[in-house]
């Protein structure tokens, strides 16, 4: 097995899954039910619609906070399942809000954190120079992501012993001096 094949196999294995949020947004709500709890307190149950302007994502979830002090989140975690690229989805479950009507109930005061796992595997390749030579030989490896997902961690096993000598969150070039052919 060549050094390139060995390193490519380990390099591909190092790409950790990541969360994707920048291209997800809540675009609307559907009221499922409401009920009066007291003279001023109401409970609202909603589904939410999500838009994905980015690549396909699996296991999309959302959690919500309210910036309105009169609104309490009773159940604020929504699941959207798998959402294809450029598509939209309605939540598979509901969110429940308790609200004191002393202030208006405003869905725009809800702040969502949305995430999912890339449906396509995270991939990266690398180039190296020089491509041949006699030992001892210092080789520079340059990572080149071939995915549109962020790679959280690069781990390098440059001597082929199964242990990573280098962990890097940035994707810097790495060098190794090989003393044996």
Considering the chains and any ligands shown, give keywords for the structure.
single chain; 181 residues; mainly beta; three-stranded antiparallel sheet; 1 helix; 50% strand
Please render the helix and strand layout as text.
Blueprint: H1 3-14, E1 24-36, E2 41-52, E3 57-66, E4 71-75, E5 77-83, E6 88-90, E7 95-100, E8 110-118, E9 124-129, E10 137-145, E11 154-156, E12 166-168, E13 174-178
Antiparallel strand pairs: 1-2, 2-6, 2-7, 3-5, 3-8, 4-7, 9-10, 10-13, 11-12
> How would you sum up the global shape?
elongated
Mean pLDDT level = 85
Helicity, in percent? under 10%
Give the N-terminus to C-terminus distance in angstroms: 13 Å
Helix count equals: 1
Strand content: over 45%
Low-confidence stretches: 4-21
Strand count, sense and closure of the main sheet?
Answer: 5 strands, antiparallel
What's the gyration radius in Å?
A: 24 Å
Structural class: mainly beta
| Series of H and E elements | HEEEEEEEEEEEEE
How many distinct beta strands? 13
Written account of the structure:
The protein is mainly beta and 181 residues long. Helix content is 7%, strand content 50%. The protein is built from one helix and 13 strands; from the N terminus they run αβββββββββββββ. Strands 1, 2, 4, 6 and 7 form a five-stranded antiparallel beta sheet that branches. The chain has a three-stranded antiparallel beta sheet with strand order 5-3-8, with no helix packed on it. It has a three-stranded antiparallel beta sheet with strand order 9-10-13, covered by helices on one side.
């Amino acid at each position: 097995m060549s050094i390139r094949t060995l390193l490519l196999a380990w390099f591909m294995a190092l790409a950790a899954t990541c969360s994707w949020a920048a291209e997800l947004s809540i675009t609307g709500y559907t009221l499922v039910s409401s009920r009066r709890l007291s003279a001023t307190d109401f409970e609202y149950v909603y589904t939410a619609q999500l838009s994905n302007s980015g690549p396909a994502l699996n296991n999309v979830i959302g959690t919500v906070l309210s910036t309105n002090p009169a609104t309490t989140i009773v159940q604020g975690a929504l699941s959207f399942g798998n959402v294809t690229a450029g598509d939209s989805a309605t939540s598979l479950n509901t969110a429940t809000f308790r609200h004191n009507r002393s202030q208006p109930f405003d869905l725009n005061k809800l702040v969502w954190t949305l995430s999912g796992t890339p449906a396509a595997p995270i991939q990266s390749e690398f180039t190296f120079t020089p491509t041949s030579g006699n030992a001892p030989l210092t080789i520079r490896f340059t990572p080149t992501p071939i995915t549109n997902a962020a790679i959280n961690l690069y781990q390098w096993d440059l001597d082929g012993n199964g242990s990573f000598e280098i962990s890097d969150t940035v994707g810097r070039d790495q060098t190794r001096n090989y003393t044996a052919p």
